[in-house]
Write a structure and sequence with these properties.
The chain is built from 18 helices and 33 strands. The protein is an alpha+beta fold and 765 residues long. It has 2 domains: 257 residues, Beta-galactosidase, Chain A, domain 5; 389 residues, GH92 mannosidase fold (2-Layer Sandwich), CATH 3.30.2080. The chain is globular and about 80 Å long. One of its GO terms (cellular component) is cytosol.
Length: 765
């Protein structure tokens, strides 16, 4: 089995989607969201606080060539790769989330300071996990690596009598209209030759930096509004407004010989410059020339993380797609212990959970499976956020009190916590967790759910019902049986979200989709859900229509699609083909109706046609690894039913794979009768399964079975078999049926919600 590190391509997903024309079933799927991965190739460390990348100012990561777009193909604003310098803190694969960091731009120059902000052609780019390199057209070679809380830059200059390294403290965000982030307050000062420090307050978060530059023979100066301040040692700005902002920062300048290198090291903290200095020392040690050691350490960290799953394939392209998907799955969220700027206590802190909506079904179960200690760290960070700020976030960035993304979903943290609780992982105070899970369920949309039994957008009814089911698991763990029974009765209200006449969700507004996209989620009571639709055959018929079996090919949106084009596309009520997240679990809904063959057909079409190599290799926004982690699971032949401690089994896309779980235990997936999958090629169906040598008739594994390691042997064939058609995955109907609440608050003056519409809500946060 090939190690993953060498096959990772950090450039995958950075450009507009460029995949072969889909055929067969995949040709009938419709993509509403931007057709670009929105990834960046910059240096990152696994779940680290810091990233660093070339900066063009383009949407959305600051890297690349494209303008802001929320639908269709993004238009170009540059015809080639450009950079005005190199910035820190980038999003990974997200869409429109308003602000995009890119703080402390570092620009190596041989031009006058007056031209700061111009862009240079960017050539000879290379990247691997933890390292990024490129050459500016002025001949300066840049290399960047990062630690968990630091970045190290190394610049190689051509011969010049007055080279410069300029650090801009004042800029952030993007260069597109309304994309800039303005610091509210700032200070910076020189401490000693080659040493400086400072802090900016951006979006309410105080971000501190400690800088060390290996240039003892160079001049060190502050600058303001592109004018040098000879002899100045400190700049302070008590209140900055967009109308009063002038660029400011720090510069080192002096002569260089051809091939001379200069290293710049930056330590970061959200708790002041002294902690930033300590973070730099911890990450990089003391003294000059730390680049090579830091790159080696970060590379080793990535190798350890990427070797947590190894797959067997003779196809280099397939190895690249898988390895890069695993890499993208482990970049976010940013875990920054002892760094909360919003409360004084030490302990876990996390940001760039962008957003739970995208990651709770696939990426968080992947982290929980491979790195349970990091999952527990994230869970405690989320519990602290809830305690300090009053809510579990749907999204959480390096910002104060903004972008909660409540329109997207409700009670999603509950799903994550329920998985950890059912696995019995140590390190979480479940009494503490139960209090916050319970309180959070009563907020925002939870009020309508409790009063009327339904909340609109109606997808929140499903979120909240499942949130109560998840919270009941925690209540039972701590021994509060009466509370668990109360919550389980409330969980039965999922039925109120559906129209029994159609078997689909009620008319409502829907975020980035239609009721079709939300109607096939994997609920705790799938038996009841299928019964509501009219039984196995009727439910399968709805799924077949949704996935486009027998439907003609569709045309995807182009550049700046108009409203009529998007309305017609949404009216198809079609699967979004992994271009977006609302329906990413729906291929496995067939398994609950005894049709694992259909799951195999849909997943085969996705895995072979919706993911590829190269910069255009993703079908849509990667969304902090939400999309990539789906691919990881699907290609292994497993899928986590988030919150239910359950993994559904399907035909693997690799002959053999191996996962490192629970420390040193290994979970192996072997196949019999396997053939390498190809686009448009035959589907492989599961004929039989053995687990640790014993026949397994059921199409699922419990979380504990996977966590404890073992060997899953999957026999495959070219035609559907009987396996998985009789035994169904667990379903959890209520012990006592809770009568559905038929009163819809939207029909009453008591509701504060707007009138409903069957049109999708295409607003983006």
């Amino acid at each position: 089995m090939a190690a993953s590190f060498e096959r990772v391509d950090p450039f995958l997903g950075t450009e507009v989607t460029e995949l072969p024309e889909p055929t067969g079933l995949a040709a009938s799927w419709w993509w509403p969201k931007p057709q670009i991965g929105n990834t960046h190739p910059g240096a990152t460390s696994p779940f680290g606080m810091v990233s660093a990348c070339a900066y063009s100012g383009a949407y959305p990561t600051g890297y690349g060539r494209y303008d802001l777009i929320t639908e269709g193909v993004p238009p170009r604003i540059h015809d080639r790769q450009l950079a005005s310098g190199f910035t820190h803190f980038q999003q990974s694969g997200t869409g429109a989330i308003r602000k995009y960091y890119n703080y402390f731009r570092v620009t190596p120059m041989i031009e006058p300071l007056d031209v700061l902000g111009r862009t240079w052609d960017l050539v000879d780019e290379h990247a691997e996990p933890g390292w990024y390199a490129a050459t500016l057209e002025n001949g300066i070679r840049a290399e960047i690596t990062v630690g968990p809380k630091s970045a190290v830059h190394r610049y190689t200059f051509p011969k010049h009598r007055n080279a410069r390294i300029v650090v801009d403290f004042s800029m952030g965000g993007l260069t597109i209209p309304y994309g800039a982030t303005i610091p509210l307050r700032a200070h910076l000062e020189t401490v000693a030759p080659g040493v400086a420090r400072g802090e900016i307050v951006v979006e309410g978060a105080p971000l501190a930096v400690h800088l060390e530059c290996d240039t003892p023979q160079w001049r060190q100066m502050l600058w303001y509004d592109r004018r040098l301040m000879p002899g100045g040692t400190r700049l302070d700005f008590d209140h900055i407004r967009p109308t009063t902002l002038r660029s400011f920062g720090l510069m080192w300048a002096g002569p260089v010989e051809a091939g001379q290198t200069v290293e710049l090291r930056l330590g970061f903290s959200l708790r002041g410059t002294e902690q930033a200095r300590a973070n730099l020392t911890r990450d990089c040690g003391v003294g000059p020339a730390r680049f090579t050691q830091r790159r080696e350490r970060t590379g080793k960290a990535w190798k350890r993380h990427l070797q947590s799953i190894r797959v067997d394939t003779p196809d280099d392209d397939r190895q690249t797609v898988f390895s890069t998907a695993l890499f993208h799955s482990l970049v976010k969220p940013c875990l920054a212990p002892d760094e909360s700027p919003f409360w004084p206590s030490p302990g876990p802190f996390a940001f760039d959970l962008s957003t739970m909506w995208d990651v709770y079904r696939t990426q968080l179960p992947l982290i929980t499976t491979l790195f349970p200690e990091r999952a527990v760290e994230l869970a405690n960070a989320l519990l602290t956020i809830c305690e300090e700020e009053g809510n579990f976030p749907i999204g959480y960035r390096m910002a104060r009190g903004s972008d909660r993304f409540s329109r997207q979903g409700s009670a999603l943290v509950h799903t994550f916590l329920a998985d950890l609780c059912q696995l019995g992982l140590d390190g979480i105070d479940w009494d503490w967790a139960l209090v916050h899970m319970h309180n959070d369920l009563r907020r925002t949309y939870g009020e309508d759910f409790l009063l009327h039994g339904v909340a609109h957008p109606v997808s929140h009814t499903l979120d909240l019902a499942f949130g109560y089911w998840c919270t009941a698991k925690v209540a039972r763990r701590v021994g509060d049986v009466s509370l668990a029974e109360e919550f389980e009765a409330l969980a039965a209200r999922w039925v109120n979200a559906y129209d029994p006449g159609t078997g689909l969700l009620q008319d409502s507004t829907f975020y980035e989709g239609t009721r079709w996209n939300y109607s096939f989620r994997l609920q705790h009571d799938m038996a009841g859900r299928i019964e509501l639709a009219g039984g196995d055959e009727a439910f399968t018929g709805l799924l077949d229509r949704f996935f486009g079996f027998g439907a003609p090919p569709v045309r995807q949106p182009g550049i700046r699609p108009d409203a009529s084009e998007m309305t017609a596309g949404y009216a198809l009520g079609r699967f979004e083909g992994l271009n977006n997240e609302p329906d990413m679990e729906s291929p496995w809904a067939y398994t609950y109706a005894g049709r694992p063959d259909r799951t195999a057909e849909v997943v085969h079409a996705i895995v072979t046609q919706m993911f590829g190599t190269g910069r255009g290799g993703l079908p849509g926004n990667d969304d902090s690894g939400g999309l990539s982690s789906w691919y990881v699971w699907a290609s292994l032949g497993l899928f986590p039913v988030a919150g239910q401690n359950l993994f559904l089994i399907n035909a693997p896309s690799f002959a053999e794979s191996r996962m490192r779980v629970a420390g040193d235990d290994v979970f192996r997936i072997e196949t019999v009768g396997f053939t390498e999958p190809r686009p448009g090629g035959p589907v492989q169906y599961v004929q039989s399964v053995r687990f640790n040598g014993e026949p397994l008739a059921r199409p699922w594994l419990r979380g504990a079975e996977l966590r404890h390691g073992g060997t899953l042997t999957v026999e495959l064939g070219s035609e559907p078999g009987e396996w998985g058609t009789t035994e169904r995955p667990p379903s959890h109907p209520p012990a006592v049926k809770s009568p559905p609440v038929t009163h819809d608050p939207l029909a009453s003056h008591e509701s504060s919600e707007p009138p409903i519409s069957t049109e999708p809500d295409r607003r983006t946060p």
